Amino acid sequence: MEKFYPSVTEDEIKKERQKAKLLKKSSWWKRKISKKRCYYCGRQFPEDELTMDHIVPLIRGGKSTKSNMVPACKECNNKKKYLLPIEWSQYLESLNSSDPEKNL
User: How far apart are CA 92 and CA 35, in angstroms?
Assistant: First the structure.
């Protein structure tokens, strides 16, 4: 099955990144990171080690809206990259199934 990537222009991505920068300065975002927890792995981190991640990546048509932005540790954000939520879930499941200690 071929992967489908919507055609998103550089201008659209630039516009959404600008919106994300504004959201990052908001009290809403400060409350989100004050919980000090990565949305994906659930581990705790200092606020300055959490990044802003688009659940649906910009390159895949995601927007910089509160419902699409979550705090993520750098490791999860770097590994997730441009994956959609279902693709990320499948990736995490594959890690769990290949971990021999989890299968005991």
Answer: 23
What tens digit of pLDDT does each residue of 50-87 get?
A: 999 999 999 999 999 999 999 999 999 999 999 998 99
Q: What 3-state class would DSSP assign to 75?
A: helix
CA distances from 42 to 35, 48, 58, 59, 78 (A): 11, 16, 23, 25, 16
Q: Does domain 10-96 have CATH number 3.40.605.10?
A: no
Is the CB of residue 63 less than 8 Å from the CB of residue 12? no
Q: What is the pTM of this model?
A: 0.81
SS3 content of the chain, % helix, strand, coil (to 5): 50, 10, 40
Domain ranges of the chain: 10-96
In whole angstroms, what is the distance from residue 7 CA to residue 50 CA? 29
Residue 69, strand partner residues:
54
